[in-house]
Each structure stands twice: as C-alpha cells, then as structure tokens.
Design brief:
Helix content is about 75%, strand content about 0%. The chain is mainly alpha-helical. It has a two-stranded antiparallel sheet.
Length: about 280
C-alpha cells in the first residue's frame, strides 16, 4: 500500500527535497474519510474527492513553505507530520473509526478488499502509475525539468526553468498519491485509524535509496523505485523467515539506507570527477 506514497516521495526527492509527513498525512486522510462517510454522512464519491483534496492542500502548503519561505524541506515536513498526526488523533479521539457496509459503502468496501488475479486494485494502479511517471520522466520536457531542478536549481533557473513551480508541483503530485493510498487503505481495512502510516516515510525513502534514486536529487527513475520496493519486500520476507524481530528489522533497514546513501554519494562523486 505504501508503494503509492513512495512514488510521490521519489518525485520530491528528485527535485532535491524530502517529505517526512506522508505517513502522518495517510493517517489524517484515512480518519477524515471514515469520519466524513460515517459521522457527517457525506456521499462516498464526494468523500473520496475531499480526502484526496485534503492531502493535496497539506502537501501544497509544505511545498509553498519550502519554496517561498526558503525553509528546509526536512524541517518543514517534520512540522507538518506533527500537525497531521495531531489532527488525526483529535478528529477521532485517538480511536479507530469503522465503516459499516450498512452505511451504503458495501460496494466501496468490496472494491477495496477484492483481489483480482490474486492482486489488489491498488497494485494495478501502482504499476500503471509507475509506467506513466517513467514515461513522463524519460520522454518529456517536463521530466527533464524535474531532473534539472534536482541536479542544480540555480543553473536550471538561469536556463529558464521555473524551479519553484516544479518543486511545488512535485509536492502536489505527492499529495494526490497520499490521498489515493489512503482511500485504498480505508476501503481495505473498512476503517480509519489515526496510528496508520507510521514509518511509511522511512520505507519510501529506503526504497528510493535502494532503487538508485539520488537522495540529493537530479537522478533516478520509476523503474529504479520499483526495483527498490521489490527488494524491500524480499528483504522483509527474508528477515521474517529468519525470525528476526521487528526492532532488529528496523536496524537492518537503517543499515541498508546508510549503505545505499554512501554508494549514491560515491557514484555521484565519481561522475563529477570524470566531468572535471
């Protein structure tokens, strides 16, 4: 499920920024959707659109703060993490909010829990988006602007690229990805929970690093992200088979992230050395 938010995180990282708030935004979106559908009795289609819009607004705010106020994206999105997580807990009094089929959402819940070809609909959407964004990055002028912004924003600006709009648009796209992931998660679990999404941002960043996307921006691909996510799943399954507890799994994940970052820096330094 976190693969969708990883797509948005990868795009933000390609422009040289980070979003640490995506997991908390998932919690806020899921709880908002559940409350909107059950307590406020908002029609499901409108509730879905409002849920996606909610994460887009918060992501856009983060992007605007980073671009216009020149505040580091790491600090900005940590603040947004606390805001979103706090709002999610306040909205639900820190309790899960179930969605009952009797409330007119039976079809929605069935869709979220269906497994065509032994796969979820979320998986098919994820693969489709990977293909779409891979084409955008590699075959369009917009994709080249994304890479140029992440590689050297000052040079890109001097060459006529509106780097501010590129960065903000990546945050907005990430917000859409968070909203979609939240809707699918709520449908699958038939509830909203303010504790959901914890650690998703770290998983996404780890998949980005493992997939060869530069953590300082300007390089990478959606195919690399897909490979990173697959490797994350394989590593996770191996650790489970080895009966390694969750705490040690986090340690292993952290070590892998450090190693991937070191390899990325060495690769970039080698390229720069060749250019010089």
């Amino acid at each position: 499920m976190w693969g969708l938010v990883a797509i948005g995180e990868a795009l933000i990282i390609m422009t040289g920024n980070f979003d640490i708030s995506i997991g908390a935004m998932v919690a806020l979106d899921c709880t908002f959707f559940a409350v909107a559908a059950t307590t406020w009795h908002i029609p499901l289609v409108i509730a879905i659109l409002l849920t996606i819009l909610l994460s887009v607004v918060f992501s856009a705010i983060s992007g605007l703060v980073v671009v216009k106020l020149k505040i580091n994206s790491f600090l900005t999105t940590i603040a947004m993490l606390f805001i979103c997580r706090g709002l999610a807990r306040t909205m639900t009094y820190s309790r899960p909010v179930p969605i009952a089929p009797a409330q007119g959402s039976a079809l929605f819940l069935h869709f979220g829990q269906a497994e065509p070809l032994k796969m979820s609909w979320n998986f098919f959407l994820f693969i489709a988006l990977i293909i779409i964004f891979q084409i955008i990055l590699k075959k369009t002028a917009y994709g080249r602007k994304i890479y140029a912004t992440g590689d050297n924003a000052n040079v890109a600006r001097l060459s006529g690229i509106n780097t501010d709009s590129i960065k903000i648009s990546m945050f907005i796209i990430s917000g859409v990805m968070v909203g979609l992931a939240s809707v699918f998660l709520t449908a699958k679990e038939a509830m909203g929970n303010p504790v959901w999404g914890m650690g998703w941002e770290l998983q996404a960043i780890a998949a980005v690093a493992i997939g060869g996307i530069s953590l300082i921006g300007g390089a990478g691909s959606m195919i690399g992200l897909l490979i990173g996510i697959i490797m994350m799943q394989v590593i996770g399954n191996i650790l489970i088979l080895l009966q390694i507890n969750l705490n040690m799994q986090s340690v292993v994940l952290g070590v892998i992230m450090i190693m991937a970052t070191i390899l990325d820096l060495r690769r970039r330094n080698k390229v720069l050395g060749k250019v010089d």
